[in-house]
């Protein structure tokens, strides 16, 4: 198995309530193993979160290795002086650039600490659109980003294909909404959060559902929590070396008229002995192509789903607009089968 650095960090504490995530093996999904495929589909319907065990799959091992390399790179990137990072910040792009939020905690020099992220568009990496100027550290690592994007997309395309089969949709329906050479909101995200005390207000403001299709997440410290749908309890997702955490986003809930689930989650300070460390995560968000209209699909099991009152009159918006309004506009919040639960801060 590819080396990961989890064992070099303080371990995730025992005895905390953790999320009941099933583990789906990528190699077995690749070989269309019927019971693995069924377990995957069940996880997508019941919780919308699962571990993707990448061991024993060439593609999986490449994804894990890429994630480790990008984890090392993101730490170098976030260690750059603030002015250097800000040069490629929000003045260039509202979303696909370096972004930060200042915390009300200061470092020993009196400088406010930041939670930071950097978003890099799939279309930028693959050359489907003009490239946004970026720091040399990012541009010199384009081959690494490119192989990571292609590998994540290969895994996502396989998962979409498997879902398509279980949902009994016409062949290629989900694939036709997620063509890699068509513009979409897919992106790689680096995140960094400094150690900080528990803050109820900040934590609840960060509760969200992802609003795209399928998210592939790597983190090395605890702190990610999901709210269990059965008892509403917030529980930790323990990082597992060699596995990604995969979750579904609201677009797939919309397309399938709520057959699939996107579960609410949030990030809290890392627990126990991990609490004093800088926390990073590496996320690949996939989203429908920009021009795709965000409404229920026709065909297969989706046709058996009940129609919501007023569904026919719902305004038709495309994926690009959906993302912008979910991130910054009037559609901010948590999307559930009951509708949109408004929240003040951007979801992801
Ligand atoms: O940092 C994490 O573990 C999760 C991040 C997340 O949920 C997101 O960026 O949407
Ligand atoms: Fe998320």
Automatic annotation (TrEMBL):
Domain Fe2OG dioxygenase as annotated: residue spans: 184-288
Organism domain of life: Eukaryota
Stated family: Belongs to the iron/ascorbate-dependent oxidoreductase family.
Matching Gene3D superfamilies: B-lactam Antibiotic, Isopenicillin N Synthase, Chain
InterPro entries: DIOX_N (IPR026992), IPNS-like_FE2OG_OXY (IPR044861), IPNS-like_sf (IPR027443), Oxoglu/Fe-dep_dioxygenase_dom (IPR005123), Plant_2OG-oxidoreductases (IPR050295)
Coiled coil region boundaries: none
PANTHER family: OXOGLUTARATE/IRON-DEPENDENT DIOXYGENASE
Keywords, ordered alphabetically: Iron, Metal-binding, Oxidoreductase
Organism: Dacryopinax primogenitus (strain DJM 731) (Brown rot fungus)
Recorded GO MF terms: metal ion binding; oxidoreductase activity
Name assigned to this protein: Clavaminate synthase-like protein
